[in-house]
């Protein structure tokens, strides 16, 4: 059902004429899935972009990656009655090189840098100890540097657009509790779909 909704939205966007204005800021919401070396999970967030030139934009993004534990550890945890996961809220800024604003389909590449707030959640022992253990683990939450890169296409029609993209993010977890759980720095691949508006 979700695929049908995305296909209908894409078809509508393609039928609308692209705007002739080169200078337009935009705001977007996105969601996606992670894959690769981390446990498969979801990611979501929002982004804003403002043009510097026809083909260069500055961007800001914030979001959440729901699980960045390594896939092997995630598989081992699945074999136990416990649930242990490391999640990350992040914020970043950067530059996007994008195709002509006068085209309906605009390919792009992006590079970003920022910070990720990593936190650990635990459950499975019981209703009384779980919150105590969770609160104790949250005391060890750390904010770590983050870099990212990716690419994709923006399909625009009128003020609306759809963003189909891929991102790679690297969280430098340092000497934290999360680095013990994640095995060091964290590399996250994700594919995502965003919907937004230009103004």
Task: Supply database-style keywords.
eight-stranded antiparallel beta barrel, 199 residues, alpha+beta, single chain
What report would you give on this structure?
The chain has 199 residues and is of the alpha+beta class. The protein is 19% helix and 54% strand. The protein has four helices and eight strands. It has helices at residues 2-15, 71-78, 129-138, 177-182, and strands spanning 26-35, 42-53, 56-65, 83-98, 105-123, 142-157, 160-171, 186-198. An eight-stranded antiparallel beta barrel has the order 1-2-3-4-5-6-7-8. It is elongated, with a radius of gyration of 19 Å. The chain starts with a helix and ends with a strand. The model is unreliable at 10-21 (pLDDT under 50).
Short description:
The chain is of the alpha+beta class.
How many distinct beta strands? 8
Strand content: over 45%
The H/E string reads: HEEEHEEHEEHE
Helical run tally:
4
Structural class: alpha+beta
Mean pLDDT: 82
Strand order of the largest sheet: 1-2-3-4-5-6-7-8
> What is the helix content?
10-25%
Largest sheet: 8 strands, antiparallel, barrel
> What is the assembly state of the chains in this entry?
single chain
How would you describe the shape?
Answer: elongated
Distance between the first and last residues' Cα: 30 Å
Low-pLDDT windows of residues = 10-21
* Cα Rg: 19 Å
